């Protein structure tokens, strides 16, 4: 294509015009401050609503009254909270406990401050505006100290200051470069960190949208191709507060099953039942932990969803049953495209019950994907969602508890890569075009699948993996970051990518370990597996035609290292599971950038090659070939390196040595982690659980919550869980461990949590719940 040559920068090519004219809302004409705060301006109507004391929603519609009930994402309604209103000649001031909105009347501008008078979000001389072609835009002041995070699934670095990003769900097989944008997920939300304090903005618009933190040093913009300007501002002030506020609006991850947190092995494709059995047996024989094998598109009959190829998979029920006995589950891929085949039951039902996407004139939209010409269920319609959900009985009746949704941008093999934007979706009775709903197609497929699976699994937790999604995707699905490559650069890039997804509410996420396309190699796979053992989602996946990359493919030396790290994943499971519990309760990411815990520390603001697991563990993996030393920045506190037991002082950069078998992990002094044990693939529930305390000596007070339950049902909703709030106080002469709160009636297999102190000094005595115990009894 000519666009791939220097022709792309031909002086005659059209570039963004400087002469674009935006019309802003203009002066205030009338206001109604009784219920919602409603404002009529010269060129638009604005409504301001408070969702909590710290969340405000601003909606501007240039044509009509703002539509207030159209969101595909926001799960809650505005609240009746106390708002102090003062209406002056030139200004209206709305004040809650956390926020102050100063509304200038002429022209209409809304500036938002926190309860200390610090500016959160201020408009520029342009305010809320639009163009004749329907584009809407918000201009916001940018401060020199602003750093931007979130934006869902983006390549490049952690801090997005200086970037311009687009939201349009896209299937990108190649390349995944730092500038490749957009990718599969659209999450039009970001968090700004300014002088150690954070706030968030969620732009609830499903059209193609843009965030421009690049073009102007003094302001940034967010804009969309259509719809209305509808955005929520979250006051923070801590990064964690912003996440809680954002996920209060868009929902939190459901507590995942423990098996879905284990190791997943995948390949495009394991093509026969015999191959899958052999693969499973290899894991058992080699005692490499595994929970899931994924079946990619070859399991189907001619890529028809809800079928098995009877030649290659003659008895899927038996396969699934036998694997279950080995401790392994099957997760099959399900794409949205339904093959156009008048003899295929799913296609027949879709046509007969009128469930496929259509043009306004009534003809079905057809596009080409793996099965050839296909129709696409209209997931914007409840009828189609219910139908699709119910169809999953095909899988659940066979004992399947997890589904992998792919190609759901939706991807179509044509020039635009997707469905015709003129397709008219039913949209639950309010028909609108694919142009408006493209970005939520994958989200709604996820909703249909997750809810259907949940109904059929009789109290067991479904697992859903998805490629495409929109804000709120976390409610239904785990996200993997699509078709990366077996490049060191892609291992490097996966860290900020997963961290930014975490900041975008998607706590359960990870890349294809080892790299999807291209041939991996022994060292890269080993280093990537070390990282994967600590990323929220841990799946090794590889594309057709490239080198097999199961952990044993490169010989014993590498196999034993990978095995050690996959086992470590299981040893750390109690810790991980407690963090996932926190994610499901508060929306906080499991894998976090350091700034989340140390927002005052500028050195953490764009730290791309380290991450935290929870609030007290730092991982600094080796991300380069042939390298065994790296610089590690440690923030405030003293940090104990796991392998050597050496203590490093914080607010310093250290040179750390790590041979191929080593992954540098640091635990904060004075804190603790809870670990289980790896027994075998058949027996994954630990008999022994221990609490490793990294002794402090100077009054450190660490509090955390340990959570456990059966790991696979919803019984926890009825009290069958164990929740311990634990504090560890480190003094010179004493290490005090107290269970300050115990809740739930779940009885785990272990009866106590053994206490194991690392770095106990001679003069230190350990006191557990007021006694000289060496364990916490449950
Ligand atoms: C897409 C997916 C990939 C999958 C392949 C075949 O490229 O991103 O993970 O293996 O399709 O289904």
Automatic annotation (TrEMBL):
> Which keywords fit this entry according to its UniProt record?
Glycosidase, Hydrolase
Recorded hits in PROSITE patterns, A to Z, give: GLYCOSYL_HYDROL_F31_1 (PS00129), GLYCOSYL_HYDROL_F31_2 (PS00707)
Does this entry carry the keyword Flavoprotein? no
Pfam families xref list:
DUF5110, Gal_mutarotas_2, Glyco_hydro_31_2nd, Glyco_hydro_31_3rd
The membrane spanning regions, by residue number, are none
Q: Which residue ranges does the record assign to the Glycoside hydrolase family 31 N-terminal domain?
A: 46-212
Write out the similarity annotation: Belongs to the glycosyl hydrolase 31 family.
Give the protein name, as stated in the record: Alpha-glucosidase
